[in-house]
Amino acid sequence: MLDSIHMGRHDGSSEEDERVRRSDRERGHRGSNTRVTADKPSDDRQKSRSESERKQEGLLKRDWSDSQRDKLRNEEKSEVAKPKLPELNPSDSNAMALGKTGGVYIPPFKLARMMNEVEDKSSVEYQRLTWDALRKSINGLVNKVNASNIKNIIPELFAENLIRGRGLFCRSCMKSQMASPGFTDVFAALVAVINAKFPEVAELLLKRVVLQLKRAYKRNDKPQLLAAVKFIAHLVNQQVAEEIIALELVSLLLETPTDDSVEVAVGFVTECGAILQDLTPKGLHGIFERFRGILHEGDIDKRVQYLIEGLFAIRKAKFQGHPAVRPELDLVEEKYSHDVSLNDKISPDTSLDVFKPDPDFIENEKKYEALKKELLGEDESEDEDGSDASSEEDGSDEEEDEEQMRIRDETETNLVNLRRTIYLTIMSSVDFEEAGHKLLKIKLEPGQEMELCIMLLECCSQERTYLRYYGLLGQRFCMINKIHQENFEKCFVQQYSMIHRLETNKLRNVAKFFAHLLGTDTLPWHVLAYIRLTEEDTTSSSRIFIKILFQELSEHLGIRLLNERLQDPTMQESLESIFPKDNPKNTRFAINFFTSIGLGGITESLREYLKNMPRLIMQQQKQVAESESSSGSDSSESDSDTDSSSSSSSDESDREKRKRRRRA
Fold first, then answer.
1. Which of 116, 249, 408, 443 is the most buried (most CB within 10 A)?
2. Alpha-carbon torsion 339, 344, 348, 349, what sign?
3. How many angstroms separate the CA atoms of 470 and 449, rounded?
4. Which of 81-90, 219-228, 462-471 has the lowest mean pLDDT?
5. C-alpha span between 335 and 644 (Å, rounded)
């Protein structure tokens, strides 16, 4: 019995071995056939596949183990030959060469050469090349925009055909914003500028963002929902979208509050709460009442409750730190808002993202060129036409313009760096000699010597009390070079003309600085001619300046030496404005002023002049009268002489007549 059982197993195993060998032979023949017919048409491949499937079904009907079936299937799959793909050649008109992004990568120089080689500008091939170039240009500009270069990116973006590529622009903005939500306000500012000129582009973008928001909300896709909500918030801040969509969005999120929906709503209100406070204060009040109700219910997580409390604190601070629009991104004055609701049926117009031949391609391009000239001006459009022509003369002119632009520095960076160097040198020196030695080593270009004097005076005025260090340093420079002396004269005139702008402490330091230069004779005294000491020509600040100036001079020189210096005949012309003698009123004002500040000793000559003024006036009047009388006597004498001469001539004529009569 056992032997018969063993014999049965042995016979069964031998039958299975024969079947395996037979299948191996068939597989070998089938593999050779597939290797030979790999390059044959697809009908042979379908026949071979159908035969293999029939054989596989026949084998599976037999009583095989699962492991052997799986092994056989794997071997058949691995040995099926793959069809050879056609070569990807962009010049061929095959469908395999054009992928999802418009084809294989073509270098820019090769793409430009291909566009130049196309003679028919209205052909489909040329339109596809321009479409690819437009897509790459828009993607590049949108990807590199930020707050610092947005003003430079906008003209370049308007230079592209945004009407034709509005779908490309919207898709690029949404992808870039999704990838970097931190730059959402920048993208919103860019869309606001585009909205001012092409409202249909901004409306298309807004519709697509709203549609993205709806899809993310239905799918519970939180990252995509956060990105869409933030984009809508900044579009509301830029007033591209009406504020009604913000209220609808918050009511949708808080209708059935969950931890995630409340968190998204808090972030949204934080972003656009400042603009809602200005546009719809009642609507914002209703939103916060709903937040307060959610807090009282206490059904949400503690973390989200803390977020709501933080939002109330931000509202109490009037949204400080969360402005609606940053100053550098407020680029549009006339704003146009689009009324798009969450309840509207929105069509994304995805067909605008795909290339389509345009029968009126050349006409539309010419229309946009004319529109571009209106937006950017004729100069920029002419420059772009010249660059497209790529002539050698235009290239050389552009290089010269670039060189001129490089030379011209309107930011005054070099001047700021020079002032910083002078300031640090003055502040880091131990004494005036070291400071003077270091400052003389600084290489100054012609015309920059004035900056040295201005910075020295600025540093002196910024001190709490006057330091003799600055006066000695200014004295050193005046003695070294006459140019610095002339510059300090100009500084004196400028400071006195703007003395009313200085604080009392700065005014005192400046007056003591110039008093030191005058007392050491490094600054000529004829600069005092600019000061006119009258009640009408002085202010409280200028009188304080004159007071401190002369008090410092008296302390430095002494009252006797100061008086001698003021009585010097060579200086009388320069001091006529300080010690006026043209009017008794001005003379009395100058005497009273110097007497009130304790320097009445320098007004002795002015007092004597005021005492002798009536006598001088009488003498002047007498001289005037005498001159008038002398002129009158001279005229009478001349009249008498003329009369006598005329009478004598008449007598002589009478005598001659008488003699003639007698002779007759």
1. 249
2. negative
3. 17
4. 81-90
5. 100
Phi, psi of 355 (to 5 degrees): -70, 135
- Residue entry with tokens 């002339």: 486
Separation between Cα atoms, residue 477 and residue 422, nearest integer Å = 14
Q: Residues 308-317: what's their mean pLDDT?
A: 93
pLDDT of 206 reads 94
Q: Per-residue confidence at 468, pLDDT binned at 50, 70, 90?
A: very high
DSSP H or E segment with residue 96:
none
Is residue 563 within 8 A of residue 601, CB to CB? The reply is yes
Does pTM surpass 0.85?
no
Altogether, the residues listed in the chain come to a count of 664
Read off the pLDDT of each residue in 573-581 and give the average, rounded to a whole number: 85
Helix orientation angle between 413-428 and 432-441, rounded to the nearest 10 degrees: 150
Tokens representing 412 are: 């005054």
Tell me how far CA of residue 129 lies from CA of 141, 166, 295, in angstroms.
18, 17, 58
**In this structure, what token pair is assigned to residue 580?**
């006026």
Residue 440 scores a pLDDT above 80: yes
Q: What is the dihedral of CA 644, 648, 654, 659, to 10 degrees?
A: 160
Q: How many CA atoms lie within 13 A of 154 on its CB side?
A: 23
Average pLDDT, the chain: 79
List CB contacts of 136: < 8 A, sequence separation 6 or more. Answer: none
C-alpha closest to that of 285 among 250, 252, 258, 326: 250
Dihedral of the CA atoms 621, 624, 625, 630 (nearest 10)?
Answer: 160
C-alpha angle 558/560/566, rounded to 5°? 100
Ranges 180-189, 236-245, 441-450: which has the least confidence: 441-450
- Interhelix angle 259-279/302-316, rounded to 10 degrees, is 10
Residue 125 in this model has a pLDDT that exceeds 90? no
Residue 289 structure tokens = 């009442």
Nearest to 358 by CA among 606, 526, 162, 126: 126
Query: How many CA within 13 A on the CB side of residue 520?
Result: 17
- Of the listed ranges 185-194, 205-214, 439-448, the least confidently predicted one is 439-448
Largest distance between two CA atoms of the chain:
220
Average pLDDT value for residue range 566-579: 85
- Bridge partners of 338, per DSSP, are 241
Q: Please answer whether residues 217 and 256 qualify as being in contact, where contact means their C-beta atoms are separated by less than 8 angstroms.
A: no
